[in-house]
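FW: tagging you since you asked about this chain on Friday. Here's the raw sequence from the shared folder, copied in full. Didn't touch anything.
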Amino acid sequence: MRLDFILRPAVELYSACAALLAAVWCVIAPQTFLLTPLSGWLLALALLALSALRLKQGVRILRFRCRVRHLPIWTLSASRIPQLPDSLFLGRGFRWLPTHTQRLYLCRLPQCEHWLRTDRPSASGGDPLLHGVELREGRVILPLRDRPGHTLVLGTTRVGKTRLAELLIAQDIRRGDTVIVFDPKGDADLLRRVWAEAHRAGRESVFWLFHLGWPEISARYNAVGRFGRISEVASRIAGQLSTEGNSAAFREFAWRFVNIITRALVALGQRPDYARIARHVINIDKLFIDYARVFLPGHDRQAWDNVVRIAGGITEKNTPRNLQGRDSYVVGLEQYLSTTRLHDPILDGLRSAVRYDKTYFDKIVASLLPLLEKLTTGKIAQLLAPDYGDLNDPRPVFDWQQAIRQRAIVYVGLDALSDAEIAAAVGNSMFADLVSVAGHIYKHGVMDGLPQAEEKAAINLHCDEFSELMGDEFIPLINKGGGAGVQVTAYTQTLSDIEARIGDRAKAGQVVGNFNSLIMMRVRETATAELLTRQLPQVDVLSNSVSSGVTDNTDAQGNIGFSSNTQDRVNSVQMPLLESASLVQLPKGQAFALLEGGQLWKLRIPLPDTAHDQLMPENIAQIARYMEKQYDSAPVWWNRPETVVTAKNDPILWLNDSETTEKLTDDTPDTPPARER
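HL: got it, structure written out here
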């Protein structure tokens, strides 16, 4: 590596001008140089070539000085986003090499400070020098073969993480893959971008919106309605309960009772949901009676009549103490079953649950009730516990298996800014369900049980505010999800967010260690910055120093009284390839990326240009109006004829056609639907 110092005056321009003047003089007056006219022209051509070379070198210095002072934000219209067949476009940039570390070190010397001063503040903030050290930049891509290794994006707030998500999601949608977007805060720009890209790709028929802030237009979803093993339902619900201190014991109790209830519901032919589970946790007597009424006649035709006869004679005096406050049929069932040798796993489980004192039972499930209350309150209960038999509700019902088979685009907005507790509960439930589906796909494939040919599907999972969605069940997803086609792209602020969510530093390290690709934008936490810098090697950096000295001659008879010397010395010091301080000074929309097995790239991320995108709706209310118009009423949906796309029924044309919009003003409200929780 040579000593490349280019933050300096462009002295090459002086020699370029001198060579140009000399070339002109050779043409005008060759006799001045004792040359013939022909020789003058030949010498002029040589001097012009030298002038062009030196001019190129000087312009390079001027460009460098301009870039290190100011680098504007790069915006890119949606139509110009490259769609590469075998890779994912990340932006423009360059491979960060020891040469760039060398330039960065030299440019930050005190004598170069005046070159970096500018009166014009940078729109992106940060230090433009970090990207200006290289003049030639090209496309930075992530090969699709590396995406099953998952990608982690780190950056503090308002530096462009969500905008990077828009860029990646747009490419995944156009590629035709399954795209699932988790957005806890419900970013309006991200929703509009997903909606616009779905229509641009002609995939609006498989676009599903689940949004807690817009329950009137949101699709419905049962987080515990689909499972491979019955015990998964209890794990998804109890997994959200606290495990600190004495709460761990109550969590195990809650798991057991939810599992008992779920087994009974499935045996009765009922699909479990949060509403049913909450109802039976509060009053398990009814479930016990209903199951016994169905099960006992199959054992003995007279069994239920005997239970009814026993229940008719139950009084407060002959009721056991532990069964006081229970339904008389429960007491009658207990007395009947105690006299028989009937054994049934589900019946035994329900029997053990009702044997507890009612007051004590309420105490041990007290930690479960607040969670179920969050998930069964207001209009959210209709979203999470859909009535499959209600034909008057046009809102679709989806599940992850169905979404993956249809290569759907699913946007999940959790509205965490309005109610963080409910957002976290719903997000964790959906995530746990997705983990279960990934396990099923891993074992049986996507088209399990269907006659269609098996196709390997890429499931692109984009998790904004990743730390709010993560639990213990997430670890096996990133460990083994690649075999099921799951490609996770997670976005979060700091490493501490993950540690705080999981509550275990070792587990947090396990999660982070499973992300093979790392994109780091501006961060403020040193530990987060070191996640990248510690993986980089040390390099040798050269520095130039001038030393001088004077030596007296003690020989009085000599001819030399003293001697002096001046030396230019080149020193070599060891420095990290990238320092943590550089990550703190990154401008908006810029990042360092560790890709393809540890290669460090410096990149600029294009921010999607919404101003020139005709498909982008102005607000979410327009999306709401479109979805309300597009929902089919249930009694006629199976007979819907194919429609011709016109300006009156196409959402894209409708949103951008002023005349059509004016005609629909009377029928379409200008305000969004009331948000009720």
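FW: The chain is about 45% helix and 15% strand.
HL: agreed, and The first strand starts at residue 75 and ends at 77.
FW: great, closing this out.
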